[in-house]
From TrEMBL, chain A:
One GO molecular-function entry: transmembrane transporter activity
Membrane topology: Multi-pass membrane protein
Main localization category: membrane
PANTHER family in alphabetical order: GUANOSINE ABC TRANSPORTER PERMEASE PROTEIN NUPQ, SUGAR ABC TRANSPORTER INTEGRAL MEMBRANE PROTEIN-RELATED
Organism of provenance: Salipiger profundus
Alphabetical list of InterPro entries matching this protein: ABC_transp_permease
Transmembrane regions: 42-71, 91-110, 156-175, 205-224, 254-270
GO cellular component, one term: plasma membrane
Name this protein carries in UniProt: Nucleoside ABC transporter membrane protein
Subcellular location field: Cell membrane
Keywords noted in UniProt: Cell membrane, Membrane, Transmembrane, Transmembrane helix
From TrEMBL, chain C:
Cellular component per GO, a single term: plasma membrane
UniProt keyword list: ATP-binding, Cell membrane, Hydrolase, Membrane, Nucleotide-binding, Repeat, Sugar transport, Translocase, Transport
EC number from the UniProt entry: 3.6.3.17
Residue stretches making up the ABC transporter domain: 7-242, 259-506
PROSITE patterns: ABC_TRANSPORTER_1 (PS00211), ABC_TRANSPORTER_2 (PS50893)
Name of the molecule in the record: Nucleoside ABC transporter ATP-binding protein
Record InterPro entries: AAA+_ATPase, ABC_carbohydrate_import_ATPase, ABC_transporter-like_ATP-bd, ABC_transporter-like_CS, P-loop_NTPase
Organism for this UniProt entry: Salipiger profundus
Pfam family, one: ABC_tran
Subcellular location: Cell membrane
SUPFAM superfamilies in alphabetical order: P-loop containing nucleoside triphosphate hydrolases
Protein family membership: Belongs to the ABC transporter superfamily.
CDD domains assigned: ABC_Carb_Monos_I (cd03216), ABC_Carb_Monos_II (cd03215)
Automatic annotation (TrEMBL), chain D:
Species of provenance: Salipiger profundus
Keyword Cell membrane carried by entry: yes
Keywords annotated in UniProt: Cell membrane, Membrane, Transmembrane, Transmembrane helix
Localization per record: Cell membrane
GO CC, alphabetical: plasma membrane
Name under which the protein is recorded: Nucleoside ABC transporter membrane protein
CDD domains from the UniProt entry: TM_PBP1_transp_TpRbsC_like (cd06580)
Amino acid sequence: MDFATLLQVLDSTVRLATPLLLACLAGLFSERSGVIDIGLEGKMLAAAFASAAIAAVTGSVWLGLLAGIVAATFMSGIHGLASITFRGNQLISGVAINFLASGLTVLIAQDWFGQGGRTPSLIGGGRFEPITLPFAEALSGVPVLGPIYAELISGHSALVYVAFLMVPLTWFVLFRTRFGLRLRAVGEAPEAVDTAGVSVVGLRYAAIVICGVLCGLAGAYLATGLQAGFVREMTAGRGYIALAALIFAKWRPWYALFACLLFGLLQAVALRFQNIDLGGITIPVQVMDALPYILTVVILAGFVGKAIPPRAGGEPYVKER
Amino acid sequence: DPALIYDLGGKFDKSFNEAAFNGAEAWAEETGGSYRDIELQSEAQREQALRRFAEAGFNPVVTTGFSMSAPIASVAADYPDTKFVTIDGFVNPEEHPNVLSILFSEHEGSYLVGMMAAMASESNTVGFVGGMDIPLIRKFACGYAQGAKSVSDDIEVISNMTGTTPAAWNDPVKGSELAKAQISQGADVIFAAAGGTGLGVLQTAADEGILSIGVDSNQNYVHPGQVLTSMLKRVDVAVQDAMTQGADLETGVMVLGLAENGVGYALDENNQDLVSEEMKVAVEEAKAQIVSGEIEVHDYSSDDSCPALNF
Amino acid sequence: MTDTPAIELKGISKAFGPVQANKDISIRVMPGTIHGIIGENGAGKSTLMSILYGFYKADAGEVWINGKKTEIPDSQAAISAGIGMVFQHFKLVQNFTVLENVILGAEDGPMLRPSLARARGVLKQLSEEYELSVDPEQLIENLSVGHQQRVEILKALYREADILILDEPTGVLTPAEADHLFRILDNLRSEGKTIILITHKLREIMEITDTVSVMRRGEMTATVKTAETSPEQLAELMVGRKVLLRVDKVPAQPGAPVLQVENLRHTDSHGVERLKGISLEVRAGEILGVAGVAGNGQSELLEVLGGYADATGTVRVNGSELPLAGGQADGQSRRARGIAHVPEDRQTEGLIMPYTAWENTVFGYHRDPRYQSGPLMNNAMIRAEAQDKMTRYDVRPPNPDLAAKNFSGGNQQKIVLAREIERDPDILLVGQPTRGVDIGAIEFIHQEIVRLRDQGKAILLVSVELDEIFSLSDRIAVMFDGQIMGERLPDETDQTELGLLMAGVTEMPGGDPIQAIDASLEDKEAREAEQHD
Amino acid sequence: MDKMPAWADAVLVPLISILLAAVLSALVILAIGENPIDALELMVQGALMRSAGWGYTLYYTTNFIFTGLCVAIAFHAKMFNIGGEGQAMIGGLGVALVCLFIPFPHWTVALLVATVAAAAFGALWALIPAYLQAKRGSHIVITTIMFNFIAAAVLNYVLVNLLRPAGAMDPATAPFPEATHLPTFQDLFATADNPLFRGSPANVTFFLAILACIAFWFLMWRTKLGYEIRAFGHSESAAKYAGISPVRITVVAMLISGGLAGMMALNTTMGEAERLVMNATEGAGFIGIAVALMGRSHPVGIFLAALLFGFLYQGGAELALWTNIPRELITVIQALVILFTGALDNMVRMPLERIFMATRRRNG
Ligand SMILES: Nc1ncnc2c1ncn2[C@@H]1O[C@H](COP(=O)(O)OP(=O)(O)OP(=O)(O)O)[C@@H](O)[C@H]1O
Ligand SMILES: Nc1ncnc2c1ncn2[C@@H]1O[C@H](COP(=O)(O)OP(=O)(O)OP(=O)(O)O)[C@@H](O)[C@H]1O
Ligand SMILES: [Mg+2]
Ligand SMILES: [Mg+2]
């Protein structure tokens, strides 16, 4: 692989890692608060649709983004209602949300646009345009570093930079603020938080809302940044990969970044190279497609150390049995 | 009344199925008639839809996609008075006299757009993004490569398939990534024969400022001024014809090529600035030669091989 | 001192579904006093205090603090009313540091750093003032229970609580640690703080409290000045009748050794060594009592012997060796070797709560060919046998079709006992046989255990209740930190000596028991923290 | 004492939950500008008023019984098997291999062998997640989801590169030989003058599904294994105390679960398509979750819930045929049913409990 191709693959890695990263951080907030979320996929999908639909109608990507966030947060709200208020099974609620998003997006899209569950293609202000960072042009001539800056670092849409900035921000919120301390505590020992006079329900809903907002960003990026419009099932399992990345990352923000970049890289490689020829043995494309999933299982099997989830994860908080 | 069954890709794929839909609409507009259509939900529904339409007296029952040929073969005998049409599929006419199989010479149309791609290319590198990796799509790719090579002997044709399952028809993200990869390898015209996936290719091409070529329907309007042309596959005409003939439909096997105007390339106000006079002349000439048999475009599916491209 | 009570509860009632946990309870506690609340298990003590702390919501009743009617809808309100509570089951975040636990919910601002810095200072001061030393940077999971309790007290003091509620604080402490705690409470009282102390140990009530209230079956039966009452009177108030807390038994006639344990070692899933070379022996016809503070390896000892934790070392039953790991080391193989096991926790181990009583009477023995007919289980026969056992063990109600969860704790324990004893085992392992069981049932269970001993069985009894250990055991072994610190005969020792052994203190160079205990516990914590990483 | 009688929990709660889901579904239909009453009528007409409609309804029901039982047995062992989909795919592979490569004399023999193959392949696919859960504590929800994706890749590879007949476009195997074709309801019940179940895919595997329900009941409530599985599901610590090996129960329960999912492929592969196609499972593995939840993991409940979903599927197909309501409506209805019966069930249960407690108190 020559340098240019490598840059291309890495560039593509960044693009593909972005929705994973946003969703992964979304899951991180939710699960750190003790609410397991396998509905990331559905929330992203809902956001992707809402952002594309509103951007198509209004011509403004910002309104679209807002709509995406609202849609994902609404889905989050359902999850919260089921798993926090009504102490239902969080896994089942997540499954239901995935189904709901998968059906509703197409149903509404068809009703609104009549294009078979697609939104119209977004043009002009309906999309996030790539941002060229300062001096990208000027520096592109510098050997090695120049192209890296100009092609790999510069030239992504705003949400990519937002996603990457979210990593230190998440770390800071989680480990340097009062809110973060309480959030982590509520995922470990909700009764400790409760007896310390802090509302468990309030904290968990806050986490769920943050989760919704981040999923909203992820979905909006898919539909208005990476692509130019919504198509059915366009999340294509990214929510599950994000979940896997979260476990891989042991529920920590910086690790999440690396996990998502790794999965992004795997996807980028699988996309670009159909059948990889390794000295006589051809690796079929199906293996590349399945690689992120296989890797997740291998990771889960504990070859990379045991991942201990937040202790109260998945359990509704019930004071009175 | 006629009925129309779309393949799993769905009615509004802006491409193959949508062409069928457009044909049906055109028929309805022209004749004032009405028809019924359905997007399939599952495999088991293929037969069900055929039977339900046949039982309800719809005639002919037109279907799109090669996957419908097997169900038609198993249903047709039960409804001898109903005419079935399979577009892109093949059902043995001896065994099932009430079935019309319509096939297209996609390689011929692809040859023409391949020529145009080569002439429009400045980097002497053109790309092809296919949908699902099946002989049908290789037929597109092979015709395209032959056309391109006929213009420039040393032209490089980069070809990628999106996948090996029907999901490959509906994966614009992957289409987009493949297009980016081809662009980085120097391609400056990319032909997308990939259903919904192709929209991602067209989008990326437009974003990156290179040319793309649409497929099946006229997709020039998707990004005006940035889609060089579209390889037309006149599914719409086929559907409209079948519906017009109605219950008296002539069955058998029909192959539509350049001669029958079953395939072609699209020229309209959206791409008139892109297609030079010289290009038009060359393509029309080649078209005439293909029709007359002077140029023979190799059909990949005839022997599963391609002289111009390695898969 | 004024005569406005610091706390006044008026007519508090609380029901959990069909269980009436508190019925119209009223109580007055004067400032600067220690008020004791005693009552049997399940009498409603914890419920009442949780209501005062805003953890539960009362169905009816009022709370008055310092003469003002105060609504306490949640713990936040309780905290601002100056109430602090140390729960029976600690409410700590295990993987947070002491410091983080202390500031949780009482941070100074949205940023953590300043809060932590301030708390570090305050904590240092509090530790010195009240002899509550803990390392503020240590993780909770590395602390002993005694130290965890200190953290809970520090939490309350950090929030400047004037009223401190302690729910059974001594249940997890050695007698010496308990004495130390009482010194602290005495300190706090002299500073004018009001303390409510829940316990069911009459000795403690007599030792430290000023006034005492007695609860029975959700009701407040009496409130008296401690100076004007006696343990006998309190016991009677507690149970509602005169009780005799001694077990009648003849001296043991020990026979051949039945259970021989040598150098038993066990490491848990976190990689912490829980049993560090245990050796002991139980003979036919004797009860060996294992004393110790909870969490020093007694549970693991039972688990290993009961066949559900792997270990190394040797265990012989009637002279032949038991496999300690692998396929043959499981509960059912142990039962086949004549080892019966009444587990420490009947609700999470001994019984399947949603199963009916009859299904539970074969739990663990369900593979016995006796209970099969062909490929299916012979449910009719199991049910008939269950009916019979329940009648003989006086399980109330004697209805085998009722789910286990619908029996009270004492009756659940009887079902477990019936199942294990009826199989005529050679060895009976018993963990906490009377935890959460009322005095009537305790008498019955103790008698059954002694009866089994007199039939020549070997009995290994694990209990955190020193009283129970003293009254049942023929020999007493004391466990600390996964080791046996020593063996004593009940007639030749006392609570003080056992208490020190329970804290790992075998000799006291300085002569101060508390310092020795602290040193010993800190040693243990440091070792565990090391193993953890 | 319980807060509510058992029958109320088993019948009333799911019934009210379904009702709520139905009301919301009706609102959704209204919102897209269609008439819910008409839609329901069309669904009932198409699914229940014709024998061929029943033929389709029962065909789907068969799938859902298998996947419902698959999820249910895992539930009993307190595991959440989301991998029914992948297990069914691989089960289909087993069916295809025996049907294609063993020359069977008669369909009965073929069915027998294919059943074993389907169950074995499905079980095999559940084995790795089960083992990882038991031995390494890898969360089975995540691993089974991953195994769904991996199964799709495996099937894809096998169909595209190994089993696809030369020249075929579909990623599908060649049609199975005549001798493996299972009798459909039409073959079984139609007569010359009464063409029952014409053209519909319901076939003898429906009876196999019913047998599976009965066997499931015996297994869970009459055998040692069922006793142990349920005990383990209620309390892992108690199971350990009793000498019930968590590893063994986890693995065995998942093997049975995977086997049941695999057997679903008999219906789609051998019964209907008579060849193995890429997308034969069509989400039935996920529907199984809803079916098991609604059926309270009891075979009778599962049968009824499977019937309901079979009706929804077939009715939905009819809707798509005769109206402009997109097929995704059915997905939305499914989602609502899962949401209300599975995750929001306490929303129904809590007020009901209060009502029951109040009446009990009033009556003494
Ligand atoms: N959260 C709860 N849900 C339902 N019932 C409860 C709950 N907490 C307590 N109970 C019941 O209320 C009654 C009183 O319990 P409580 O914990 O107050 O007793 P206690 O006096 O503190 O007993 P112990 O000495 O065992 O701590 C018991 O019957 C118990 O089963
Ligand atoms: N969590 C619970 N769920 C349902 N019923 C309960 C629960 N806790 C207690 N009960 C019921 O309340 C009644 C009283 O229970 P409790 O545990 O207080 O008994 P108790 O009076 O302490 O008896 P014992 O001395 O035998 O333990 C029992 O009959 C039991 O059926
Ligand atoms: Mg208590
Ligand atoms: Mg009790």
